[in-house]
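for the recovery benchmark. tokens below, seq after
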């Protein structure tokens, strides 16, 4: 398997790939399972800020099999620092792109883990209507604090094993999803796990994506902040203060 080119940025090694290359790599892993769960993380600005202080998240990123730049500011910073990334590869776009390449001859079996109760089932209905060759074989919304419950984690492992899925879509929020997948990736009986935040909510219609022009111009964060201010305003304000300092520090280190 061809080694992907990477960029060292903010302490992370980010794969310099476009969406078709990322999807092709996932297809390869799914087509040739080897008993090892390969997992994907998608750093945005908030991940980058938390990464600096969270040793667990740094360990999860270090062991990830694919690190894709989700946030447009991360891609822009890479360009400014002379470590160009070809494009933004958002987790919420990666999952539909993977569904798009499923065929009747090679259908895709999907497990949706996360989101609020009932949301995964609504996402499954929407997926089946839009992608005939993407089969949601199981959904599960774990209870609050499940990551600290050994019995609950064992139950999830059994559900995943029984589903015989090709891909596990994990929507638990960051950094919980990355920490959980990293903790259990050697036990997960699935070829690929995708840590993709609110993607299940988007697929269910529970939350609306920003208009395409906002996504392309790097303003999706503004749309999300407007639609979920209680949860996101404080976080984005913190990130807006810290992220430029991280970019300045990286620039100083290379001059």
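predicted aa per position
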């Amino acid at each position: 398997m061809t080694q992907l080119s990477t960029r060292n940025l903010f302490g992370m090694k980010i794969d310099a790939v476009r969406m078709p290359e990322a999807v092709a790599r996932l297809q390869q892993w799914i087509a040739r399972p080897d008993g090892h769960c390969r997992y994907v993380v998608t750093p945005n600005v908030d991940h980058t800020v938390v990464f600096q202080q969270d040793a667990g998240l740094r360990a999860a990123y270090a062991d990830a099999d694919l690190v894709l730049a989700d946030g447009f500011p991360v891609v822009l910073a890479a360009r400014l620092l002379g470590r160009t990334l070809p494009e933004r590869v958002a987790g919420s776009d990666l999952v539909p792109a993977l569904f798009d390449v499923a065929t009747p001859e090679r259908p895709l079996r999907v497990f949706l883990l996360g989101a609020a109760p009932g949301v995964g089932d609504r996402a499954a209905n929407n997926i089946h209507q839009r992608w005939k060759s993407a089969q949601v074989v199981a959904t599960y919304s774990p209870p609050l604090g499940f990551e600290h419950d050994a019995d609950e984690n064992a139950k999830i492992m059994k559900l995943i094993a029984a589903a015989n899925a090709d891909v596990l879509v994990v929507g638990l929020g960051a950094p919980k999803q990355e920490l959980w997948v990293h903790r259990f990736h050697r036990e997960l009986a699935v070829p690929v796990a995708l840590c993709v935040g609110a993607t299940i909510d988007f697929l269910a219609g529970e939350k609306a994506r920003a208009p395409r022009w906002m996504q392309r111009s790097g303003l999706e964060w503004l749309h999300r902040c407007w639609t979920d201010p209680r949860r996101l305003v404080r976080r984005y304000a913190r990130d807006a203060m810290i992220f430029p300092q991280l970019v300045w520090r990286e620039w100083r280190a290379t001059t």
